[in-house]
Amino acid sequence: MALVTCGECGREVSDKAPNCIGCGAPIEAAGNKVAQPTKAELQRDGTFIGTKALLVKLAAKAVLQIGWRLDNADEQAGLVAFTTGVTWGSWSGVSGTVYIEDLGNNRFRPVGSAKQNVRGGAMLSINLFNEAESKVERIIEAMRSLANNEWN
Ligand SMILES: [Zn+2]
Question: Which of 38, 46, 104, 128 has its CA 20 to 30 A from that of 152?
Answer without folding.
Answer: 104
